[in-house]
Amino acid sequence: MATFGDPRKGESGVKDSAVRRDKVTVAQLRAVRPQDWQHASVEWADFGAAATEARNRIRDVTRRLPHAWHGQAAAAAMRRLRVLLDEMTIAYRESRATALTLEAAHNGFGLASTWLTEAESMARSAELTLEDNGNVTVPDRHQPDDNFGPDIDGLIDQAQAAAVHNRAEAALTYAADVDFQVSYELARIKKAVDYSVLDDATKAAVNDDVSGGLVIGRSLSGQGQALLPPPAPDEGSGKYGSVEPTQADQKLENMMGLYASLSPAEFGGTMAARNMLHYLSNTGEPLDLDVDDMLDDMPDMQADADRNIAANADAWKAQALAEYQRTGKPVKMVQQTGWQGFNTTSDQDWYHAVGACHYNTVAQVEVVPGPNGEPETKIRYQVHVADRYNCDGSANKSTSVPGLGVVTDKDMGRLHQAGLAKEFDMSGISSVREWKG
């Protein structure tokens, strides 16, 4: 959300992060039955097929009815049928989204369970103890041959324990990722219970749910640049074109456009002025963000992304290495930190252009054989940023504009309500960068 006004000192974290990963234990993962998720997926797919059939029948009736029935009762029946048609369309689309998400859970938990089974088998073979948190206990069962010689058997135990821990860590962290991503998508789908009319906003939300179901399937299989949909934006200033524009509204529109064109500094800088002009263009078309410039201009944003990668890098490497060792082939797995909240208060231009936003770091973790036969791991990543340019209707956020005096967020939001400007989505992707941590 772009912010019209000066950055408040010390302000940060206006956007909440969408990442909520709960830890998974060995006992919890052992109790997971991936086939149950698959059965649920099939049931939802069957429900979607039934909803589709019902929708097609209702649609056929709405096409034939006007030729056979007229009058007030017929008009009332048509209105109800159109609502039913919308409801069945939503039911079909959301059922498909649910089926796709549950099938992704089946695949994801299945892979995590496979890794856990391997870790447990490795532990039994080496007579080691795999703890519930993934740690490995090595029994004190070896003594060196003399006071000076190395404990060769003990060193072997330690190496085997490290291998077991690596495989268990891969299983538990991946299961946590699956749980997080599936929960995230199902929470989005649950909101569709409130949908009854297939207006433009509902169409967009329903389509996002289906695309999210497709994406999560690719994400949990490690294929492609799979990106979880960003959190839904806030409501903004209200419905577009819902009030009649006044002369004051038109003057504000003209003056803001003039100053954005001729005096970008009045808005914080060139990016802020560019986004203001796009808002005033009244098209509502999406706008690209230069994420490389954002990361360069705001070192704190780059540092925040680095911290998030560092927090996940070990688990990502463990998962990729587990799959490399399981298949014996080079591995490329796509991972992501999940959408994080960030406030651009460190740079005045970006603060006025974007304000609080969300970003998600998507990484490709690659494992290949090294020159000495040992596996080598590389992490390359891109930072995705998403936001909506809107005004929250606050009278507390304001700036002084020559010829207009004090202009508030509420004033700017009214231009959207009056149909003189239009809120829009903003997004962008950084160039590919290599993680050096």
Look at the structure and give the mean pLDDT.
Answer: 83
Q: What share of residues is helical?
A: 40-55%
Structural classification: alpha+beta
Tally of DSSP β-strands = 11
Q: Terminal Cα separation, in Å?
A: 32 Å
Q: What percent of residues are in strands? A: 5-15%
Shape: flat
> What's the SSE pattern?
HHHEEHHHHEHHEEHEEEEHEE
Main beta sheet: 7 strands, mixed
Uncertain residue segments: 8-14
Please report the number of helical segments: 11
Provide the gyration radius in Å. Answer: 27 Å
Quick rundown:
The chain is 53% helix and 14% strand. It has eleven helices and eleven strands.
Give a structural overview:
The protein contains 11 helices and 11 strands. With 437 residues, it is α+β, with helices and mostly antiparallel strands. Strands 3, 4, 5, 6, 7, 10 and 11 form a 7-stranded mixed β-sheet that branches. A two-stranded antiparallel ribbon has the order 1-2. Helix 6 (247-262) crosses helix 11. It is flat. The two termini are 32 Å apart. The model is unreliable at 8-14 (pLDDT under 50).
Could you list some keywords that capture this structure?
alpha+beta, 437 residues, flat, 53% helix, seven-stranded mixed beta sheet
Lay out the secondary structure.
Elements: H1 26-31, H2 34-68, H3 72-125, E1 129-130, E2 136-137, H4 152-190, H5 200-220, H6 247-262, H7 270-280, E3 287-288, H8 291-297, H9 299-327, E4 331-336, E5 340-343, H10 348-353, E6 356-369, E7 375-389, E8 398-401, E9 405-408, H11 409-417, E10 424-429, E11 433-434
Parallel strand pairs: 3-10
Antiparallel strand pairs: 1-2, 4-6, 5-6, 6-7, 7-10, 7-11, 8-9
Helix pairs in contact: 2-3, 3-4, 3-5, 4-5, 4-9, 6-7, 6-11, 8-9
